[in-house]
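[Automated response] Your request has been received and processed.

Submitted sequence:
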Amino acid sequence: MAARRSLIRWVAVLAAVVGLGVTAVLLAQQRLAAFGVAMNPPDQSHEVDPREALNFEPIGMGSTISALTIVDTDGRAVATRGDGSHRESTDPLAFGMRYDISVTVERPWLRQRAEHHFVIHTVAQPRLEGRAERMLEADGSVTVKFDHPVGSLEIKGDVPFRAQSDGERRSFKLSAESYPAGQTFPLELSLTTVTGVPIPPIRLAITTAPPLTAKITPHDMTDLGVGLPIEVTFSEPVADRASIGQHFVVQTADGRPVAGRWFWYNSTRLRFAPSPTWPAHAAIEVKFDPEGVKSQQGGMIAAPLSARFSTGADKRIFVYLDKQQVAAVENGEVVRTFRVSTGKAKTPTVTGSFYIYARFPLKTMRSRAKPGQPGHYVVENVPFAQYFYSDYAFHGAWWHNGFGHPASHGCVNMSTRNHNRRWPSAPEDAGWLYRWAALGVPVTVFRTSPTQTQVALNK
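Generated structure:
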């Protein structure tokens, strides 16, 4: 029995040795059969990170890499390093490029040689569309667009911006809450591709709109008429014209608000007309808070503005075309009347409600008609001109003495001694009205004289 057991053990050992030999043979056969090259990243890879090196290793027992070429779409070769057992690229790859790769693997002792071809594509670099110099929009934003989607975006600069992207992440609206006016400052965008690969920073030059300025008139003027409007002149058109009046406070010096309305006279001139007039003998204050007011380009006013002026007595001038008469009224009482000459039938005097907006002791008056055209005239040394609407004015007329009858091109002619050689004893009506009146005195021109009932209703 002992001999039999010993025999069985020797048979088992022999079988194990034979099995190991078979396994070794099989493994050796596999290693001899394998022959090629392994590349990382694999063939046909897209969105490859260009920062990473390409790695190559031979496959199979005794295999070596004998040749390696890497060429981009433009025909540029990429340098490599290593030996037959391992090779890798040394030059950084370019963004958005196709690379054609040829690798030759040899196993000389078996006289084996094979050439393998691979293709990879690096991730595309998002490129900025348009110029790097940008003008900030009126809402404090600038929009940047890229030719490829962007992964992350970080903004660096002295002015803080926040970014909002569209759904495709190709367009970004960069918005700033506050920024210096009339300056150019740098902005740096740090981006990554959608796969997280950082790309070289993009630098922008952002220019902001010039500061918006405004001037309020009248200011520091006294004894004004009760009809002169406030005028605010902006350096350029503002963005939100409709709500501009909300930024103003108009009141008397003791804090009583003054009723009236704001309206645009033209694209840059804003006016406030009191309703119905300013109080007489009152100090008026105007305060302007520019917070939120911007020009159409986005310029802002640096600080709040204010103005102050005062009115005199309640003086008014009435013109009656049917009577060819002017009445000077102060505090509701007629203080003086004058015979005048208003516009002729072909050049009538305008009717309506106005106010004196400009005054000149002496004025050269010119018609709008050019020389040689009907109605052309140039008259020098016209005394005591007080304009109440467009080219219409009260003024002295030394060239005729027919007051009480229409004789003018539309102005209200008044008697004067100034420069008057033909009628040296003429009354100085124009001079009296000039000294009595002031900027802002209301003027009403009637085609026909009002009845006593109408006068009573107007009081």
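Summary generated for your ticket: The chain is about 10% helix and 40% strand. The CA atoms of residues 367 and 374 lie 10 Å apart.
If you did not submit this request, please reply to this message.
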